[in-house]
Amino acid sequence: MLKAYFEKGKIEAGCDEAGRGCLAGPVFSAAVILPPNYKNKMLNDSKKLNEKKRLILREEILKDALAWQIASVNNTEIDEINILNASFLAMHRALDGLKMTPELLLIDGNRFKKYKNIAHQCVIKGDGKYMSIAAASILAKTERDAFMENIALQFPQYGWSINKGYPTLKHREAIRQYGTTLHHRLTFRLLPVGEQLSLF
User: Is residue 39 included in any domain, yes or no?
Assistant: First the structure.
């Protein structure tokens, strides 16, 4: 089972994002504060869970968390400030929405832009180590998946209901055939070098 806390006795908020490597759509982040010594045997890194388990856990997290918030940064903003800064911004927006003030932030990954005067700890592969980060990863992932499934109804040719905007072969073939949409990240490499120029 994952660890319940990094530093005992502190109010910790786990933070994670979903969609950094996608060619289309926003990047989503979540911040979650779980009760002290929270236990959930099924809770794990969202990438290690199937969709059914993620959705079950989402409801449990929303019910059990002391505080939670989900936020996003859209593709236009990503193109303006780059995906790394957009990921930090999405986390900051999620933290802005928490109804409790955390004393320590647990960040999935190895980099973060300081949030206010709150201490933070970066944890590589933290979504597979700490419950609060895993919970944040599940909220961010399920929220982003739902967003992509919704816009897929308007743009079915890109296969977003299945690939969720990631750079699959089908997604890139659709970009090659139909061009880009208002949801694509135009600063990303949407097609192999040489072909990219033909998009603009």
Answer: yes
Report whether 187 contacts 78 (CB < 8 A). Answer: yes
What integer pLDDT is reported at residue 196 of this predicted model? 57
Domains of the chain: total: 2
Q: Is 132:108 a contact under the CB 8 Å cutoff?
A: no
Distances in Å between the Cα of 124 and the Cα atoms of 16, 68, 129, 157 are: 11, 22, 9, 36
18 has a pLDDT exceeding 90? yes
Whether 93 maps to a domain, the answer reads yes
Q: Which residues contact 116 (CB under 8 A, 6 or more apart)?
A: none
% of residues, the chain, pLDDT over 90: 91
Residue 43, pLDDT above cutoff 60: yes
Cα–Cα distance for residue pair 17/107, rounded to 1 Å:
9
Full domain range(s) for residue 164: 156-199
- pLDDT computed for residue 105 by the predictor: 98
Cα-trace Rg, the chain? 17
Q: Which residues pair with 119 in a beta bridge?
A: 104
Is residue 119 assigned to a domain? Answer: yes
- Domain of 77, CATH number, reads 3.30.420.10
Q: What percent of the chain has pLDDT over 70?
A: 96
